[in-house]
Amino acid sequence: MDLDNPSTQQTNIFDNMPAKQAFWIGFVTAILSIGTLGFVVLGSCMLNGGCSIQNVEDQDDDVLADELVKDEAQVAPTILAGVPTVTESDHMLGDKNAPITIITYTDFQCPYCGRFNPTMEQVLEEYNGQVRWVQRDFPLSFHANAKSAANAAECAGEQGKYWEYGDKLFENQSSFSEDYYIELAKGLGLNEKSFTECVQSDKYASAIEAETQAGAAAGVSGTPGSFIIDQQGNATPIKGALPFETIAGALDGMLGK
Fold this sequence. Notes:
globular, alpha+beta, 2 domains, Glutaredoxin, 7 strands
């Protein structure tokens, strides 16, 4: 036996250890490792400020590091071909002829999307006439009621209440159900019969799916996922529910302020 050889000493230690003790040491070590990984992933989600569709199994160290970037890095300018152009069918707030367009892909069951709404309302107020806001559907698969809520909002849009209805959905994300959708429509003065038929038929399911797929093709991987489109058509992605100050900084640069 070579006592000066560390590997030999380690082998002898485990050889002499009772099997049951060795098992529990290995078990506790594995649990601690999993807990550490979970802490890192949770921290990255919180710092990222959004609901992500990315699976933990698919994340390597580079991806995790990328998600821990500062707010400023999440609005880095880029030219993206593939962000669908704005059409008459889009839901829009602000001056339709504004030089800057912000397109947001949202999930009504995502808490970060609810937090982002007041930020965008402040943007429209502070940049009145300079920014228009378009909101599109991007329900995430792990939010059980996100698709039905998106459909209900589209049904409300038929009667000119898309934005008001969406605001109410964000305020009551734990209440989603068909009965709640109808109750909410009644409270906003919508035609109950027409709205109920629209909701029960899942009328906008295919349109919502198409919008989601188009957003994913443009690079959206979580919600809220937004793009600032400048006068030249360049798209700057906004990842997550970033604060007003960060978005304002990007807008000021585009507007030459």
